[in-house]
Amino acid sequence: MTQTQPVPHEPLDPSSLELATVAARAAAARKAEDVCIYDLHVVSSFCDAFIVCHGTNRRQVTAIAQGVIDELRTKNVRPIGVEGMDAGRWVLIDFGEIVVHVFDEPMRGFYDLDGLWGDAPRITVNLDVPAPPKA
How far apart are alpha carbons 52 and 9 in whole angstroms? Predict the structure, then answer.
């Protein structure tokens, strides 16, 4: 039996990578746990990247989500849609190129987006870099 080699693919568009990195760092700055960026541009037609993370309670989930929205707004990027902010269990923020999923911990395990999109390449970024000062 022959093993197949992974097919190389084009890297994520730099503007999408920058947005995903800013969103992930904003989530991490609000103490989001297990922040993951998935490169979906080769396996999906609806967005370039998913950011998946979770908070420990509903208040933190909404604070993380609002922090991501606020940080991207400083870059003149506004969400196309936001779902779940009132309940605080799973907040989905659609920025077009990227989609941010902020879960409470039990919901993240239940919906298992990490398993569903686990074949997509994971992008590693340093989340400890502070956001640039606001102008």
Answer: 22
Identify any residues that bridge with 100 across adjacent strands, giving them in sequence order: 51, 93
Using only the alpha carbons of the chain, give its radius of gyration: 15
pTM beyond 0.70? yes
Pick from 19, 12, 14: nearest CA to 98: 19
Q: Rounded to whole angstroms, what are the CA distances from 94 to 49, 77, 79, 91?
A: 11, 11, 6, 10
* pLDDT one-digit tens code per residue, 104-127: 999 998 978 888 777 787 888 777
CATH of 14-122, one of 3.30.460.10, 3.40.50.12370, 2.30.30.220, 3.40.630.30: 3.30.460.10
